[in-house]
Design a protein that fits this description.
- By secondary structure, the protein is of the alpha+beta class.
- It has 2 domains: 67 residues, no CATH class; 118 residues, GIY-YIG endonuclease (3-Layer(aba) Sandwich), CATH 3.40.1440.
- It has 8 helices and 10 strands.
- A hairpin with a 5-residue loop joins strand 6 and strand 7.
- The mean pLDDT is 90.
Length: 229
């Protein structure tokens, strides 16, 4: 096989994968994990040996593994402050909105767009920056899954200590007249979460990464189900 023929075939394959007409020699060299100079030398060879072809396959495979590893987990936002607003239906909260008094905020809108098009894992934190909940978004997008978790009724698993005070207009009664107990109150995540981080994760790794985080914070997170790795 001529070196030029192999390079031409690789160029057509890469162009088809990227949905473009042509790719440069530099892109082909990068795909094969070799220098442009070495690619030029290969192109001039009238007959590539099986060993040379096998070496190119190994180099391309190693480059593919490196590319996958580098792109497996990509931060979208980290420790982003939550500013809950009512959804358009006025029933549930959204974590934050890109709409301001002067129009749409481009930075926040960019975050929302990325979350609406990505899958992965997310972490909610309390006001002290302590992780309190880890979740994953596999079938649904991160934005939708995160907002669902933000409003989810988790019954006895999210509680705070409070004293119940009257909400009606009644006279204040001092402790001599009424003793007030400190009790537990079930709350949604939206009540106690102050920050959030979100990461785009390759779909095949999402469940494993979520399980690893839950197991790593087994005594602190509000997740009740201990996933297997």
């Amino acid at each position: 096989m001529r070196g030029e023929d192999l390079i031409a075939a690789l160029g057509k394959r890469l162009a088809a994968q990227q949905d473009v007409k042509t790719v440069s020699r530099a892109e082909i060299a990068s795909h094969l994990n070799i220098t442009a100079e070495k690619l030029g030398a290969l192109a001039e060879k009238p007959n590539l040996t099986p060993l040379q072809v096998a070496d190119l396959i190994d180099r391309a495979a190693a480059k593919a593994v490196t590319d996958v590893e580098q792109a497996a987990i990509r931060p979208i936002i980290e420790f982003y402050g939550l500013d809950p607003v009512y959804s358009s239906h006025g029933v549930k909260f959204e974590m934050f909105s890109s709409q301001t008094d002067t129009g749409q905020h481009p930075y926040i809108a960019g975050i929302q767009d990325r979350l609406r098009s990505s899958h992965g894992i997310y972490i909610f934190y309390d006001s002290r920056g302590r992780a309190i909940y880890v979740g994953k978004a596999v079938l649904q997008t991160l934005w939708k899954e995160m907002n669902l978790a933000f409003n989810r009724d988790r019954k006895d698993y999210q509680q705070i200590k409070v004293v119940e005070h009257p909400s009606k207009k009644v006279r204040y009664r001092p402790y001599e007249e009424q003793h007030r107990r400190i009790g537990k109150l079930n709350v949604q995540l939206s009540y106690i979460a102050s920050y959030v981080s979100a990461y785009e994760v390759s779909k095949g790794l999402i469940s494993t990464v979520e399980a690893l985080l839950i197991r790593g914070f087994a005594n602190d997170l509000l997740n009740t189900r201990m996933e297997k790795i």
